[in-house]
Amino acid sequence: MSLDALKSAIPDYAKDLRLNLGSVIGDSALPQQQLWGTVLACAIASRSPRVLRELEEEANARLSPEAYTAAKTAAAVMAVNNVFHRTRHLLSDPEYGNLRAGLRMNVIGNPGVEKVDFELWSLAVSAINACGRCLDSHEQVLRKAGVDRETVQEAFKIASVVQAVGVTLDAEAILAE
């Protein structure tokens, strides 16, 4: 399947999503690897089987094997980190922040692609998973690396649209049963 198939599946009541999906992917200023790595990581994080099926094939065709694996890795490691750090932040006892995490995250130091790309994908997944601590952390790393705010925003725009498409199409599938 493809991006076009996904866009055509979006119901008319959500036509803004169809337009947004086309623009955040089709009109993105991000380089190909950053764009399609963000798309793949967000498709995974969206937890929508349909979105993942439709976007994975195109992402796989447009990414090197290393970037494809790194984007999947970003989604996986952020699935752990976002829950852990969001929970630490939400608990009223700040002492949890002083405890050793004890979670393996070695891939963040050597993701197999440019660190900026991995950080961008991690930020996008953190947007979907609503972890403010992770968002702040990845945004700071990106900004220190010289990435402008427009690029950072491009990543979370992709995240927001991919997530919304997943929610909409999954709801439609349930309602059609």
TrEMBL record:
Pfam families: CMD (PF02627). The active site is at 131 (proton donor), 134 (cysteine sulfenic acid (-soh) intermediate). Keywords: Antioxidant, Disulfide bond, Oxidoreductase, Peroxidase, Redox-active center. It comes from the Bacteria. It catalyses: N(6)-[(R)-dihydrolipoyl]-L-lysyl-[lipoyl-carrier protein] + a hydroperoxide = N(6)-[(R)-lipoyl]-L-lysyl-[lipoyl-carrier protein] + an alcohol + H2O. Its EC number is 1.11.1.28. Antioxidant protein with alkyl hydroperoxidase activity. Required for the reduction of the AhpC active site cysteine residues and for the regeneration of the AhpC enzyme activity. This is Alkyl hydroperoxide reductase AhpD. The lineage of its organism: Bacteria, Bacillati, Actinomycetota, Actinomycetes, Kitasatosporales.
